[in-house]
Structure formats: C-alpha cells, structure tokens
Design goal:
This protein is α+β, with helices and mostly antiparallel strands. It has two domains: about 5-65, 434 Repressor (Amino-terminal Domain), CATH 1.10.260; about 75-175, Sandwich (Jelly Rolls), CATH 2.60.120. Helix content is about 25%, strand content about 30%. The strands form two sheets. It has a six-stranded antiparallel β-sheet, with no helix packed on it. The protein has a three-stranded antiparallel β-sheet with strand order 6-5-8, with no helix packed on it. A hairpin with a 3-residue loop joins β2 and β3 (about 100-105). α2 packs across α4. The longest helix is centred in the first third of the chain and has 11 residues, at about 5-15. It is elongated.
Amino acid sequence: MDIGSTIRSIRKRKNITIAQICEETGLSQGFMSQVETNKTSPSIATLESIAKALKVPLAYLLLRKEERMQIVRKDERRMTSSGPDRLKVGHLSATKNVRMMLVELPPGTSTGEQPHAHEGEEVHLVISGKIYAEQGEDSAEFFEGDSFSWNACIPHSVRNVGEETAVVLIALYTETDSKPEWYS
C-alpha cells in the first residue's frame, strides 16, 4: 500500500504545505516527510487526523489505486464483438465484480442461436430499439427505457426484433473477477 504517495499527491493538488498539515495535526515535519516517503506507517488515528487536515475521507487514503475511480472516456472504450452475429460490445467501465457494457444489436441479430448461461447476475436497460428477451419459461418484448434483470446461470438469449439497431446497456455482476467468454 502506498499511503504516503497518496497523501503527498492530495496535499500538492490542494496546495497544502507540510507545515500546514503539521500545524493542524500536531505532527512534526520530519514525521510527515517520513509518512509521505513511506518510511513509516502511521497509526489509524494519525491517518484520521491527516485525512481531516486534507479534507478527504479516511477510507480514501486506504484504497489501492485499482480501487479508486476509474475513468473510461467515450473515445477510449475497448470495443469487441460477440456471438455468431458479431454484436458490437463497448466496454464502459468495470470494478472487480461489476462490468458495464453497451451492446449494439443490428436488426434480426441475437446473442446466439441457443440460449447461453454463465456466472453472475445481469441488469439490462434498452437505450433504443426493440428487443425480445427469453430466459427459461419467461419472455417479453422490451422497448426504449424498459429494463429487466436475471440470474445469468439460467440459459438466456436476447434478439433484436425491431427494424433499427437496438442498443442495450448491460451491468454484469459476478462473485469472482472472471469474465464470461462472450465478454472478452
């Protein structure tokens, strides 16, 4: 964990000097310098006072870099294709257990001839178009603004039954950080 670098980065971004932190926390400049260079590990109580002086939540100082906000700009999205119809999949963002993607289904295309299953739970929001979704004995048509969800371990399929490209926002939650093969 690189708490010291995080503290230094926040302090510099906010134009706060080490002296100002020390004045507010009662810590010595030498100690703060050692904290910022990761030469010493402060106690939780000390971190709490440093966080207060920096006006950030204590928990933020404890996050690893990969746990912090991840930004994916529209023009930087990873794009893949999926299934026999090569559906266009835009990977929006992800955490260890949640992935979000935009899937484009041209008219008449689907997620596959046969329903498929994989680990996790999915939530879908139809952004545009008209789709037909099926899982087991349940099925329905969905239009712009409609949403649905399911446990993905039950075989399911989605088909564009409209005359224009359908766009569906999908959030996928998995217990592990593994990805279903269609996600890659």
